[in-house]
Amino acid sequence: MRTAEFYNTNSFNYRILRMPQTVYLSLGSNVGDRTLNLKTAIEKLARVGKVQATSSLYETEPVEVSDQPWFLNCALALETQNTPRDLLEALLGIEEEMGRQRTRNKGPRNIDIDILLFGNFILDEKGLTIPHPALQQRRFVLDPLAEIAPDLRHPLLKRTIAELRDQLSPAQQITRIASSGS
Description:
The chain has a single domain, classed as 7,8-Dihydro-6-hydroxymethylpterin-pyrophosphokinase HPPK (Alpha-Beta Plaits), CATH 3.30.70.560. About 25% of the residues lie in helices and about 30% in strands. The protein has helices at about 35-45, 85-95, 140-150, 160-165; strands at about 5-10, 15, 20-30, 50-55, 55-60, 70-80, 110-120, 125, 130, 175-180. Strands 3, 4, 5, 6, 7 and 10 form a 6-stranded antiparallel sheet that branches.
């Protein structure tokens, strides 16, 4: 049975039918056992939905704050019945449960989970913007995402993930290091 929820934003109200949505997430870690951190987060994500696909792991140089260890990143497709805000709260809960410390903006972290796309939703409210506002500028996001959803269209830019990735300069260093089954 579908349940409807009234969802309130800063500027307007709308109804969301609690139907399964495919959400694309970016996961990253650059502190501790990076591979274990990502695998643990993926296991915990099963509490909020069904993991449909996981990319390979990619080692990537830090962006914006370069004086920190390199990251391991991956992308994940998750089917969920959560609203965007409920999913965000669940992701923050997983980060907190895993010991995420927010001591420096864009600084080192054992786990970072970002919502990239949530179905075809377009949402801009305090603390939550969907699609992720920097998605199209980040090779560490687009390479893993293009591996699992190359033909997925960005709802605002109307370009596929593969097209967005191919438009980026190769400046950021990124190396595919392990398949999702490894």
